[in-house]
Amino acid sequence: MILPKNKPHHGFTLVELLVVVLIISILLTLGAGALKGAGGKGVTTAVATSEAIFEEARSVAIGKGTTSRVLVDVNSVKSDTYLRRIVVAYLKLDENGEPMEGDWELSSRGYSFPDGVFFSKEFSRKDFQTGGGQLDEMSLSGVSGLFNGRYLYYEFNSEGICTTGLSTSGEYRSPSFVVGHGARPKGEPDPRTTSEGRRDFGGFVVWRNGATSVFRDSSQILGDRDPNKF
């Protein structure tokens, strides 16, 4: 019996190697593009979820007939939750159904922004149109060791009105809620924008009735202001 001869095994040709290298280069380019856009997706997710948190706060205030607040964590710059966690709290009611001043209850476990996304103290204002008015700050205690601390807040009354934008004269100025993509440099308390995310900001304004309107472009938020600041 005559056995068939074994065919010699050859390696890849130069053309085949070039094709493989080209395919790898294309895949690496696509992967880098996807990573570059990750910050934008994180900001978009944070804005959408924050809108739902605001709606939760408004619904709690109306449903329970009390004052509610959306709280932004500013307790400790050493904490991973600093400028990255928001939570809803409301005033407990006494036996007569009246809110008890200073006695807050958490509505939920809150929400933490995606990695690299931070709340912007610089661009979140009581009066978005003029860029004026720092948000008020409060201390939360007696709820849980995980949540006790200092917070900036937006407030709703029992009618669902966003009282953060109300002046003493009753005039309403729409406050803004803004987040951005950045990083926390070692030794610095506040985040900074990266070169890729210098204009990667998103957010919304809050109307008197609690409804929100999302900014469609970062230029609506930043204007001529320095995008390096949070």
Secondary-structure blueprint:
Blueprint: H1 14-36, H2 38-64, E1 68-73, E2 85-93, E3 99-106, E4 111-112, E5 117-119, E6 137-140, E7 149-156, E8 176-181, E9 201-206, E10 212-214, H3 218-222
Antiparallel strand pairs: 1-2, 1-7, 2-3, 2-4, 5-8, 6-7, 8-9, 9-10
Biased composition (Basic and acidic residues): 185-199
Transmembrane segments: 12-35
Pfam families: N_methyl
Q: What is the number of beta strands?
A: 10
CATH homologous superfamily heading: minor pseudopilin epsh domain
Q: Could you tell me the mean pLDDT?
A: 81
CATH domain fold name = minor pseudopilin epsh fold
Q: How does this model look, in words?
A:
This protein has 230 residues and is of the alpha+beta class. The protein is globular. 35% of the residues are buried. The longest helix is centred in the N-terminal third of the chain and has 27 residues, at 38-64. The strands form two sheets. Strands 1, 2, 3, 4, 6 and 7 form a six-stranded antiparallel sheet that branches. Strands 5-8-9-10 form a four-stranded antiparallel sheet. The chain has helices at residues 14-36, 38-64, 218-222, and strands at 68-73, 85-93, 99-106, 111-112, 117-119, 137-140, 149-156, 176-181, 201-206, 212-214. The chain is built from three helices and ten strands; from the N terminus they run ααββββββββββα. Residues 29-39 have low confidence and may be disordered.
